[in-house]
Backbone:
């Protein structure tokens, strides 16, 4: 059985475009300096998570599904 | 306003002085060291040059507005506004100059067309374009980099993405430059309003029939078709569609052209780095990030305070404007070690060349890829070029970092 999905944001790359927050608002939020953080990796479908991963202009989001 | 309360500095306020246009980095270094939040009397607004302040303001769309045309309108009389009518009609619909929610609708609509993955798919095409140009110019042993190389690459790409015929690029380029006279703040041009109105009107007249044609024959993924489909769903009018196309033509080539030119010049001034990229193409991604940081194509961007703001103890009043020093932040030693040195593999490199926050350049991934391919192909094929003249002229602009011309000579590698 596949493990839980792991979603990470690289704060070395995130510039706070907020696109992920607008795309899957149940998964991402902004922290106090305006960078994205993961609030609930299970907050949306895997397809929507992958979409958000693709949409980041900075390639700051990684979505992994452990084997 | 009590001017006496404001932090002052010995540095002059003329952002258009030849030495500032020629070498903005030295001017902004002095400013950052003496008054990182400085009220510039001549420009009539605050100039921010410290990395932390720049990032904070760019990420705060709640208190700082990008509504350039809205704030400009307030400064003008009714009669003056009338003279600017064609510019207002178009530029007030540019999402780069808009706040949410208008900004956000267009940003999310167009974002999927510019993602790193989508843009990666164009890489072979861009490599082909760059190669074709160099095939032609190589045997000549000289080129004028801006016009013959740096401009050709992004113009070909953006016209293709938009879905426009590439028949009239000289005309389009001319109108683009006319529009640029207005908002890149070319103070040397007294007729800048008339010129920009002329450019905008010509561009609208050119694009309108293209949009009407495409309406009858929608395509899968060109930008015109994407905008028309969104219009059919409601909320966008004809002028929103036309204005957005003009924005993307403009944003899609001017700044990338300058990035490629400035990047080439930086490498030419560091011939060992030219050879380094030639010897190790795997550093291209990092190299372009460093060139963006070191001498990017957009020196500054502008915001307006929506409310009174206290920025590190400095009181910024509602309605005041702020010049956000992107290039200055990119040379802040508190953020970057040895910031005035070019280091093609600098890491970390959290530069602000594409800004930060909701207005982060939508075309960033595309500009990166175009610059990577341009510089990879040049360093691969050519020996480090040499300037034909040291008398280089930058466009006198507060915002743009743009060379007028850069003639060079080179040899094709054996």
Residues:
């Amino acid at each position: 059985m596949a493990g839980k999905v792991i979603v990470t944001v690289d704060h070395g790359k995130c510039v706070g475009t907020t696109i992920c927050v607008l795309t899957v608002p149940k998964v991402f939020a902004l922290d106090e300096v305006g960078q994205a953080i993961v609030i609930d990796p299970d907050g949306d479908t895997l397809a929507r998570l992958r979409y958000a991963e693709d949409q980041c202009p900075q390639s700051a989001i990684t979505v992994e599904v452990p084997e | 306003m009590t001017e006496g309360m404001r932090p002052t500095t010995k540095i002059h306020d003329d952002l258009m002085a030849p030495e500032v246009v020629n070498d903005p980095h030295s001017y902004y270094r002095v400013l950052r060291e003496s008054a990182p939040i400085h009220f510039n009397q001549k420009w009539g607004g605050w100039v921010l040059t410290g990395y932390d302040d720049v990032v904070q303001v760019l990420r705060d769309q709640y208190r700082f507005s990008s509504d350039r045309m809205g704030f400009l309108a307030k400064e003008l009389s009714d009669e003056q506004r009338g003279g600017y009518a064609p510019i207002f009609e178009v530029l007030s619909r540019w999402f780069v100059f808009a706040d949410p929610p208008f900004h956000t609708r267009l940003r999310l609509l167009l974002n999927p067309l510019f993602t790193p993955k989508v843009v990666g798919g164009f890489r072979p095409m861009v490599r082909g374009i760059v190669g074709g140009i160099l095939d032609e110019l190589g045997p000549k042993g000289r080129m004028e980099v801006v016009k013959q190389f740096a401009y050709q690459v992004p113009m070909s790409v953006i016209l293709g993405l938009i879905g426009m015929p590439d028949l009239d690029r000289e005309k389009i380029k001319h109108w683009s430059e006319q529009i640029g006279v207005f908002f890149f703040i070319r103070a040397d041009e007294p007729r800048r309003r008339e010129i920009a109105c002329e450019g905008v009107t010509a561009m609208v007249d050119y694009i309108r029939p293209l949009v009407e044609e495409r309406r009858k024959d929608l395509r899968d993924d060109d930008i015109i078709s994407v905008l028309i489909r969104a219009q059919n769903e409601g909320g966008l009018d004809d002028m929103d569609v036309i204005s957005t196309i003009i924005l993307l033509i403009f944003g899609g080539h001017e700044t990338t052209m300058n990035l490629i030119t400035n990047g080439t010049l930086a490498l030419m001034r560091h011939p060992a780095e030219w050879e380094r990229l030639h010897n190790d193409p795997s550093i291209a991604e990092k190299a372009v990030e460093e060139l963006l940081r070191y001498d990017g194509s957009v020196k500054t961007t502008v915001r307006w305070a929506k409310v009174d703001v206290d920025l590190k103890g400095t009181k910024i009043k509602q309605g005041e404007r702020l010049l956000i020093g992107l290039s200055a932040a990119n040379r802040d030693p508190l953020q970057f070690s040895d910031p005035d040195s070019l280091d093609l593999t600098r890491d970390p490199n959290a530069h602000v060349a594409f800004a930060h926050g909701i207005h982060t350049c939508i075309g960033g991934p595309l500009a990166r890829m175009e610059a990577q391919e341009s510089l990879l192909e040049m360093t691969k094929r050519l020996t480090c070029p040499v300037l034909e003249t040291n008398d280089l002229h930058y466009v006198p602009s507060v915002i743009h970092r743009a060379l007028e011309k850069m003639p060079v000579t080179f040899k094709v590698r054996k």
